[in-house]
Amino acid sequence: MTYERDIVRHMAGYVPGEQPTDSGIIKLNTNENPWPPSPRVIDALATVSAESLRRYPSPSAAAFLAEAATLHGVDTDQLVATNGGDELLRLAITTFVPPGRPIGIAEPSYSLYPILAAIHDSPVHRVALDDDWSLPAGFPDELNAAGVPLTLLVNPHAPSGRLLNAAAIARLADALEGVLLVDEAYVDFADPDHDVVSLIAHHDNLMILRTLSKGYSLAGLRLGYGIGPASLIQPIAAKTRDSYSVDAVADQLGAAALADPGTARASWASVRRERQRLTDTLRGWGFGVPDSQANFCLAQVPTDAHRSAASIYAGLKHDGILVRHFDTPRLQDQLRISVGTPAQNDALLESLQRQLER
Ligand SMILES: *Cc1c(COP(=O)(O)O)cnc(C)c1O
Predict the structure, then answer these.
(1) Residues 32, 163, 12: CA angle, nearest 5 degrees
(2) Which CATH architecture has domain 39-260?
């Protein structure tokens, strides 16, 4: 006898990238920031008191929201803190999508989106990206025709790293009849003048997802947030969100992280430099690599390498280097490589070069 809903019985669960316990492995597979978090975060951790653990945390994660409001120049009622960005995705679906109505996505993108849609009993309306991973011209019209109340768009795009500029996001928000959630999980690594947050003042259907997992080196903390007009944010913050999904430790440590942007910014600058080096080197070896504004590169294996992406993935793993290979029709000849420290990237390139010579 099984008791779960049919939809749950028939769906596949999210498959996370491997998380080996061996610390000698060079992990370039799950887009973590290769640099440590701010020392101020570790200081804040040391001051967590027994009393703050005995009591329930601030329901809104007030300390964190105050720092985020300062950082972005918005009001705290335009922000909601969540248990990782992933929780915000789930809450956006719960809040804006009547069960059974379709959720709009571009394909390929974050593999969690269809899973969250399935749990909600919603079909997914998928629009295939063009060959260069750009959005097809008819994207908003197609989603409007399908009656999509919520579109999830990752920008910079995963897994290609391609960035849609703010003007294009503004046009998309104007054109879409439903809510546009721009998933900016990787935006910290984009060129610094890219700014979508200022658009929320003029677009009442535009919401932004941010996370401390990537840019602030805090994937283990589980802290993300949404930015948007209060009319979009407050139904989540005041109604659909769990009362205490952000714990007292995440509230304090998240605030400490945003209060010390210098450490994080230095890591972003390093990632940008190394991203360029990886891109240039891989292109020099014949790989197809789109311009990335994220902390990873998507590398298409050259056909004259006479090696499949899957076998290169396995060869790298044999050398103690993990990257990501997606076994789907459009991605099976590609490797997604997170940008590491210079030493990690050297090791990656050395192993890769050996594989290609074989
Ligand atoms: C990492 C990521 C998120 C959010 O991750 P959290 O760790 O839950 O904050 C959201 N979208 C994409 C595309 C991501 O890669």
Answers:
(1) 55
(2) 3-Layer(aba) Sandwich (3.40)
User: What is the CATH class of 6-36+262-357?
Assistant: alpha beta
Q: How far is the CA of 35 from the centre of ligand 1 (A)?
A: 18
What's the pTM value of the predicted model, to 2 decimals? Answer: 0.97
Beta partners for 209?
Answer: 183, 226
Encode 268-292: b = buried (16+ Cβ within 10 Å), e = exposed.
bebbbebbeebbebbeeeebebbeb
One-letter amino acid of 230: A
Does residue 260 have its Cβ closer than 6 Å to ligand 1?
A: no
**pLDDT tens for each residue of 122-168:** 999 999 999 999 999 999 999 999 999 999 999 999 999 999 999 99
Determine whether the shortest distance from the Cβ of 85 to ligand 1 is under 6 A: yes
DSSP 187: G
3-state secondary structure of 194: coil
d(CA 185, CA 85): 8
Nearest to 38 by CA among 340, 259, 188, 210: 259
For ligand 1, say whether the CB of 149 is within 6 Å of any of its atoms: no
**278 CB under 6 A from ligand 1?**
no
